[in-house]
Amino acid sequence: MSAVTWFRRRPKTTATVAVDLDVARRAAEAVNRGDVDEANRIVNATTDPQAHAFEAFRFIEVES
Questions:
Q1: Picking from 2-6, 14-18, 28-32, 57-61, which range would have the lowest pLDDT averaged per residue?
Q2: What are the pLDDT digits (tens) for 12-40?
Q3: What's the domain count of the chain?
Q4: Is there a domain that residue 7 lies in?
Q5: Is 9 a member of any domain?
Q6: pLDDT of the residue at 5
Q7: What is the pTM of this model?
Q8: What are the CA-CA distances from residue 62 to residues 28, 31, 36 (Å)?
Q9: How many secondary structure helices (H) and strands (E) does the chain include?
Q10: Which residues contact 21 (CB under 8 A, 6 or more apart)?
Q11: Which of 10, 39, 53, 64 could disulfide-pair with 30, CB 3.0 to 4.6 Å?
Q12: Is residue 29 part of a domain?
């Protein structure tokens, strides 16, 4: 008979980061005008630069 495990360890939950959409938009606007250094400065000034940079992709215009 196999042992039944009634109690399991749950993975630790990670805190979700609230992304400031205004910051993401400003970073995207900087990228759209070609100022990548400014976009880096904008997102690096936040508590989670990766999350803000990822969110900025929603607002970056794509050239056809």
A1: 2-6
A2: 777 777 899 999 999 999 999 999 999 99
A3: 1
A4: no
A5: no
A6: 65
A7: 0.72
A8: 11, 11, 15
A9: 3, 0
A10: 55
A11: 39
A12: yes
